[in-house]
């Protein structure tokens, strides 16, 4: 299952998900609780604290792999699929 996480409000995320036709759910961490608990990298833009792009592979509550920094962003899905296929082959 795939989820996106951002610091925007749930209503903002719903509008963005519909507008962008996202094939996954967006989760809101508007109060930065998840971000703070994991010490995720953030940056400031237009008075907002935003999360830098990072990808976690999680299974049964255990983080198996972290992709950071995610650059270039357009290649991250390919890198994740490659990692998953290597794990499945093992």
Short description:
The protein is an alpha+beta fold. It has helices at 10-20, 33-38, 76-89, and strands spanning 3-6, 25-28, 42-45, 48-51, 55-59, 62-67.
Please characterize this protein's 3D structure.
Strand 5 (55-59) and strand 6 (62-67) form a beta hairpin. The model has no long low-confidence stretch (mean pLDDT 94). It contains 3 helices and 6 strands. The strands form 3 sheets. A two-stranded parallel ribbon has the order 1-2. 34% of the residues lie in helices and 30% in strands.
**Mean pLDDT metric:** 94
Distance between the termini: 21 Å
Sheet with most strands:
2 strands, parallel
Shape: globular
User: DSSP strand (E) fraction?
Assistant: 25-35%
Report low-confidence residues grouped into runs of 5 or more.
none
The order of strands across the largest sheet is 1-2
Helix and strand string, N-terminal first?
EHEHEEEEH
How would you classify the helix and strand content by structural class?
Answer: alpha+beta
Number of helices: 3
Whole-angstrom Rg: 14 Å
- The count of DSSP E runs of length 2 or more, i.e. the number of strands, is 6
Assign a percent range to the helix content: 25-40%
């Amino acid at each position: 299952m795939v989820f996106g996480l951002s610091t925007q409000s749930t209503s903002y995320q719903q509008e963005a998900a519909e507008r962008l036709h996202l094939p996954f759910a967006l989760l809101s961490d508007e109060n930065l609780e998840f971000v703070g608990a994991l010490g995720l990298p953030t940056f400031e833009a237009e008075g907002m604290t935003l999360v830098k792009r990072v990808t976690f592979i999680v299974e049964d509550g255990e983080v198996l792999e972290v992709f950071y920094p995610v650059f270039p962003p357009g290649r991250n899905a390919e890198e994740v699929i490659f990692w998953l296929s290597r794990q499945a082959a093992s």
